[in-house]
Amino acid sequence: MKTQIAALFALFRYQAFWTMDRIKGGPVKTHLKAITNSIEHTLPEVQKQQRLEKLEALLAHCKATVPFYEKGYQTASGLDAFPVVDKRIISNDYEQFTSKTYRDTKNTIRKTSGSTGTPFQVAHNANKVHRNTADNLYFSKKAGYKIGTSLYYVRHWNAAYKKAGWQNWLQNLKPIEAVDLKPKTIEAFLERMVADPSKISILGFPSALEVVCKHLDAKNAAPFPFKVTSAIAMAEALNSYTTTKMAYYFNTTMVSRYSNMEAGILAQAPVENPAVFTINTASYHIEILNLNEDTPAPKGTLGRIVITDLYNYAMPLVRYDTGDLGTIETNGNRRVFTKIEGRKSDTIYDTKGHVVSSFMMTSIINYANINQVQLIQYDKTAYELKLNVTPHFNLEAKLREEFKTFLGADATLTISYVDAIPLLNSGKRKYTLNTYKT
Question: CA–CA separation, 308 vs 302, rounded Å?
């Protein structure tokens, strides 16, 4: 009976959402159809032409209404003639990057402290908000989520993200605090899911879900008797341990989402091929630029991810350096991300100055009795590996030897034992940190 009632409530929530959208004129449904058609049914060359038309319209809007571009870029022709900007440049004078057309309209302010602790905010006009909602629905559906499903959202719930109780109920949203994942709170979280008669989806920080999986490992727990219909990792890199354990305990294929608060969903790994990321070419123009200059990186090489948001007209993000690194290649006839390495400040270099893939850190899953790990680079050849371990850990020499194969034989690698790897203010936990090249 509980299952039938839960299904009825899920149907009510689904219908209520689309009824409200229809009352408003159907903006989300219109965007959702356009996104689906663009990504799934439009030939790449046609899609590219459509994207360039949106780009030209956005740039014309910038030159006509955004002070920063009005002053120095009236004769700029094409995207390459516009400068690359970042959080620091925009934060120095928000007014210069705000369209005069939208200053007196009702905009939505998206705020983020960022993983680096630098506060940042961007105004989204109403059409951009609708576009973001549609992007979210499209990519969530691709992972298996449907409106009305119980969504267990594991993140740090600071004041900027908390919603009223009635909003959580209407969206069937179950906020789970990532900062407070102790054995007692993990058990409460799991018991809540076991008792939930509704279909279940999970969205959250993979580092928090890793803690949940390790808690279950320590108990020698059996798989749960329910299937999680979708599981999406966001805001951090998803490692193979968490992917494997989520599949074992919750009978689900976990996929990784690449997004940020200032823009929205930029890419997501498909369930059928989690090794690559489907790029949201319907809503963004994405460039990969060289690490140290604003020129295109050679195809298939690691570079800075620079985006142009095609739908934010209130505060246009044109050639916005996300601070992340990635690689784009062609898969079939579509461009996909084959690597997303995270922020440049989190990137580790070997002693020869070459970028070391973040997947180096996944080698930790081969070592028993390690709870948490963080690698820090202090200088060209100086590194520290922080470990939180159980009393049974005895593989330091082997671990040091393996990491030196990644970093270089001449690397000076200090291994320190700590009680815990601290969380950032955002509730995330960094696996790597570079204080040498920032």
Answer: 19
Helices (H) and strands (E) in the chain — how many of each? Answer: 11, 19
* Side-chain half-sphere CA neighbours of 149 within 13 A: 21
Residue pair 226/3 in contact by the 8 Å Cβ criterion: no
Burial of 182 (0-12, 13-18, 19+ CB in 10 A): exposed
- pLDDT tens, the chain, 438 aa long: 778 887 888 888 999 999 999 999 999 999 999 999 999 988 888 998 999 999 999 999 999 999 999 988 988 889 999 999 998 899 888 999 999 999 989 999 998 755 544 568 899 999 999 999 999 999 999 999 999 999 999 987 766 677 778 888 888 899 998 877 889 999 999 999 999 998 999 999 888 898 899 899 999 999 998 889 999 999 888 888 899 999 999 999 999 999 999 999 999 999 999 889 999 999 999 999 998 899 999 988 989 999 999 999 999 999 999 988 899 998 878 889 998 876 666 778 889 887 776 656 666 767 878 878 888 989 999 999 999 888 888 899 998 998 898 899 999 999 999 988 876 655 566 778 888 865
Q: Are strands 254-260 and 370-377 parallel, antiparallel or unpaired?
A: unpaired
Beta strands in 224-300 (DSSP E): 228-234, 254-260, 264-268, 277-279, 284-289
How many angstroms separate the CA atoms of 286 and 402, rounded? 36
Residue type, position 88, single letter: R
Sequence-ordered list of residues with C-beta below 8 angstroms from that of 365, at least 6 positions apart, any chain: 239, 240, 241
Which positions ≥6 away from 386 have C-beta within 8 Å?
A: 372, 373, 374, 375, 376, 416, 417, 418, 421
Residue-level length of the chain: 438
Find the Cα–Cα–Cα–Cα dihedral 134, 138, 141, 142, rounded to 10°.
-170
pTM of the model: 0.82
- Measured in whole angstroms, the distance separating CA 167 from the mean position of its chain's CA atoms is 23
Q: Which two tokens stand for residue 255?
A: 């996929």
Determine the Cα–Cα distance for residues 286 and 322; give it in Å rounded to an integer. 10
